[in-house]
Specification:
Shape: elongated
Oligomer: single chain
Radius of gyration: 20 Å
Strand order of the largest sheet: 9-10-11-16
Largest sheet: 4 strands, antiparallel
Number of helices: 0
Distance between the termini: 28 Å
Helix content: under 10%
Number of domains: 1
Order of helices and strands: EEEEEEEEEEEEEEEE
Structural class: mainly beta
Length: about 200
């Protein structure tokens, strides 16, 4: 869809059609144009490049990101999903966050997400294990095993154990080995355009 930008004094931009964009200026004179713009802690302006994306600014740090279903981590960084159907989950006690499907938090406060929407994720109640797939169960040894097919599938033993440490991936995606996404260790990523003038 082709848009025509009509800007008035860097205060607002009207986009022809059904989508609206804006140009926003901070108290310090920094400005940017886009969608759902937010102002950071140090008065930078960050805007999304699409009208369906949200932008979120940290409450205590000079950080903002734009994407889908953004969350703020324990250390006040922002993680966003790269698709609107993915969820993002941040740990309550550690600087971990991940985006994907049906995310769960492990006993060690790390985040595991499925890489496809029909998978479910299950975390052990007593060990730092989690896995995603079909019909996940917790064994007597507190390991999580899941089937890789919805019916008569074999158990997937690529569950997450104590090596489930956060890694950095672009765009807030929870990607990892097997079918579970590793949690980010608080490196927020987004695709917003932040104009700094």
């Amino acid at each position: 869809m082709r848009y025509l930008w009509i800007c008035v004094g860097l205060l607002s931009c009207l986009v022809s059609g059904q989508a609206f964009a804006e140009c926003k200026s901070s108290l310090t004179g920094k400005s940017a144009c886009g969608y759902n713009c937010v102002e950071t802690y140090s008065h930078d302006i960050v805007c999304a490049d699409r009208p369906d994306k949200m932008c979120k600014a940290s409450l205590l740090r000079n950080y903002a990101a734009c994407g889908y279903n953004c969350v703020e981590t324990y250390s006040h960084e922002i993680v966003c999903a790269d698709r609107p159907d993915k969820m993002c989950k941040a740990s309550l006690l550690k600087n971990y966050a991940a985006c994907g499907y049906n995310c769960v938090e492990t006993a060690n406060n790390e985040i595991v997400c499925a890489d496809r929407p029909d998978y479910q994720c299950k975390a052990s109640l007593l060990k730092n294990n989690a896995a995603c797939g079909y019909n996940c169960i917790e064994t007597a040894n507190n390991e999580i095993v899941c089937e890789t097919a919805p019916e008569r599938g074999h158990h997937d033993n690529n569950h997450w154990g104590h090596d489930n440490h956060g890694s950095h991936h672009d765009g807030g995606r929870g990607n990892g080995r097997g079918h579970a996404g590793r949690g980010h260790d608080g490196r927020g990523h987004g695709h917003g355009h932040g104009g700094h003038r």
